[in-house]
Design a protein that fits this description.
This protein is mainly β. The protein is built from 1 helix and 10 strands; from the N terminus they run H-E-E-E-E-E-E-E-E-E-E. It has a single domain, classed as Immunoglobulin-like, CATH 2.60.40.
């Protein structure tokens, strides 16, 4: 009986080892890529001290592109540069399935100068970043 117990432990340990070495077919390579902004909804003006949500619409070019609400947001003086980030699957077949998605960015108005938003739209033929630029004036809360 004692040998049977050791044999059973050995079989269970071997089974666990084999299971932990199996390939995960759901894993594949990917990379992150800036994706161009199609449009942005901003208010006509900001009231100093208030918080707003800016809606940004992007277009994903095929079924290998996914958006997980990621973006880079850089400060450059009174300008804000916004770069939406797409997750792109590598090494898998993609279908031409253009989809639009909209996400929102919170903005707390803490400067009295106008906000200049520059939404990334891709690169020109020379590799320079292109932007959709929108200026929003700031007014005092009356």
């Amino acid at each position: 009986m004692k040998n049977f117990k050791y044999l059973l432990i050995l079989i269970v340990a071997f089974s666990v080892t084999l299971a932990s070495c199996s390939d995960d077919d759901d894993y594949h390579d990917y990379h992150l890529e800036y994706i161009g902004t199609k449009s942005a909804e901003v208010p006509d003006e900001f009231i100093y001290g208030q918080t707003y949500r800016i809606n940004v619409t992007i277009e994903l070019p095929n079924s290998c592109y996914f958006f997980y609400n990621q973006y880079d947001y850089f400060y450059e003086g009174t300008s804000r540069l916004i770069y939406p980030i797409a997750h792109v699957d590598d090494g898998v077949p993609c279908t031409l399935n253009i989809t639009e998605t909209t996400f929102s960015i919170p903005v707390q108005v803490l400067q009295k100068e106008p906000y200049i938003f520059k939404f990334y739209q891709g690169e020109d033929d020379d590799g320079q970043d292109m932007f959709l630029t929108i200026e929003v004036p700031v007014v005092e809360n009356i």
